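Input C-alpha cells:
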C-alpha cells in the first residue's frame, strides 16, 4: 500500500422531611476500540478499505462506528462506510459516516448503530472503513493510543475497493502498526452492569431497602453480580446475586443497622469486569423537624427564624438544604443552608416586608424534586 503523501502529526437531604431515590446514570459510557492520543502518520494512497484486526477478551456490544477525522466534526469531505467483519469476511454491521462527520470524539467521527451487535469473547474481528476517492480525507497509521482491556489490537489490514463499496481487507502492511484507522468503534461490555438503583436512597438504621442491577444486555448463561458495601456496620448486602440467562436485571435487599451520625454508604455491583456504584444514606432513628418561630409576624417590623433539626450529627460535608419562598415580596429566605458536619441543626432568617393584608407564605426546603414545608403568616 503506497502512501502518496504523509505528514507526522451526593446531595444528602433530611430523611422524613425530604426523601428521594439515588440512582446511577442509566446511560452507559461507551468505551472506544482504539483510543487514539496521536495520529502518528496520516495519508491517502487511493481507494481502499482501511482497517484493523482485533480480538475480543470479553463479550462486547458494538454501539457506534466511526471514521478517522483529524480535524473536527466538520473536517470530513466525503462520506465513509465503516463495517465490522468476522474473519470469514462476513459483514456483521455497517454504517455510513456522513460528509462533515457525525459525533466527533478523539480523532474520529461516530454514528450510532440502530441496533447494537454482539461480538463473542475470545474471537477475532476486523473493523474497516472506505478511504474515499478524492484524497481529501485521510487515514492514520503508526498511531499512538491504547485499546480497552476488553479487546486486543492484532494488525493493520487493507484492501482495494471502489467508492463507498466496503470490502473485507486482507492485506497487511509491514511497519504500519498500529493502523489502519480507517474505521473505529465504540462498545460496552455485554452482560455488564449498566445501572445500579437503590430505592429508597435514604433509610433509617434498622430498616431495609431494595437494590436493582440492570445489565447492558442479557446473556445466554446466568450472570453472577458481586455486591459490596463500603461500610457493613451501617448497611450490608448479599455477597452476590445471580441474574438468570435471558434476563437483564436482578434485585437484592439492602439491610441497614443503627447509626448515630448520618452515614453515607457506597454500594457496588460488579460483573464481567465492570462496576457500578450508588450511595445510600443511613440516618439515625428519629424524625427531623422543620419549624418557624414565630409563625406570625408584622411584615417589615419583625422577622422569623427557621430551624431544621435532624436526629443525628451530619456527615462530612454537611447536609445541604435548598430553600425557597412562594412569595418573596412578603417573606424571603436564603437560597440554601447547610447543617455543618457533626451538627444536628441549622437556623436561617426569614426576612419579612410590609403587606396590606394578612399573607400566608410557604417556606420550602427541597432537593431532587421533593419537599418539606412550613407556613409563615405576614400581617400588616
Amino acid at each position: 500500500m503506497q502512501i502518496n503523501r504523509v505528514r507526522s502529526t451526593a446531595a444528602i437531604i433530611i430523611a422524613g422531611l425530604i426523601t428521594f431515590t439515588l440512582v446511577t446514570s442509566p446511560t452507559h459510557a461507551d468505551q472506544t476500540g482504539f483510543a487514539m492520543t496521536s495520529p502518528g502518520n496520516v495519508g491517502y494512497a487511493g481507494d481502499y478499505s482501511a482497517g484493523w484486526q482485533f480480538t475480543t477478551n470479553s463479550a462486547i456490544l458494538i454501539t457506534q462506528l466511526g471514521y478517522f477525522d483529524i480535524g473536527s466534526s466538520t473536517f470530513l469531505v466525503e462520506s465513509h462506510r465503516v463495517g465490522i467483519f468476522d474473519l470469514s469476511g462476513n459483514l456483521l454491521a455497517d454504517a455510513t459516516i456522513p460528509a462533515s462527520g457525525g459525533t466527533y470524539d478523539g480523532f474520529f467521527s461516530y454514528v450510532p448503530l440502530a441496533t447494537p451487535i454482539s461480538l463473542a469473547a475470545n474471537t477475532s474481528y476486523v473493523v474497516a472503513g472506505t478511504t474515499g476517492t478524492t484524497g481529501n480525507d485521510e487515514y492514520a497509521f503508526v498511531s499512538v493510543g491504547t485499546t480497552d482491556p476488553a479487546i486486543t489490537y492484532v494488525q493493520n489490514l487493507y484492501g482495494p475497493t471502489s467508492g463507498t463499496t466496503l470490502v473485507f481487507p486482507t492485506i497487511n502492511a509491514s511497519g504500519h502498526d498500529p493502523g489502519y484507522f480507517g474505521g473505529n468503534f465504540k462498545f460496552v461490555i455485554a452482560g455488564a452492569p449498566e445501572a445500579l438503583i437503590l430505592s429508597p436512597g435514604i433509610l433509617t438504621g434498622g430498616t431495609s431497602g431494595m437494590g436493582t442491577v440492570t445489565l447492558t444486555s442479557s446473556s445466554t448463561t446466568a450472570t453472577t453480580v458481586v455486591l459490596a458495601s463500603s461500610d457493613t456496620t451501617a448497611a450490608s448486602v448479599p455477597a452476590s446475586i445471580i441474574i438468570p440467562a435471558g434476563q437483564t436485571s436482578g434485585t437484592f435487599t439492602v439491610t441497614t443497622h443503627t447509626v448515630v451520625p448520618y452515614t453515607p454508604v457506597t454500594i457496588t455491583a460488579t460483573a464481567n469486569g465492570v462496576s457500578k456504584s450508588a450511595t445510600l444514606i443511613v440516618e439515625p432513628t428519629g424524625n427531623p423537624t422543620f419549624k418557624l418561630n414565630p409563625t406570625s409576624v408584622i411584615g417589615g417590623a419583625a422577622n422569623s427564624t427557621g430551624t431544621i433539626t435532624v436526629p443525628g450529627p451530619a456527615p462530612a460535608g454537611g447536609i445541604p438544604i435548598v430553600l425557597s419562598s412562594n412569595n418573596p415580596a412578603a417573606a424571603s429566605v436564603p437560597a440554601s443552608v447547610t447543617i455543618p458536619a457533626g451538627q444536628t441543626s441549622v437556623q436561617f432568617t426569614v426576612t419579612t416586608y410590609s403587606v396590606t393584608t394578612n399573607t400566608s407564605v410557604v417556606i420550602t426546603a427541597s432537593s431532587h424534586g421533593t419537599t418539606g414545608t412550613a407556613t409563615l403568616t405576614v400581617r400588616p
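The chain has a mean pLDDT of 87. The chain has three domains: 33-189, 193-283, 289-379.
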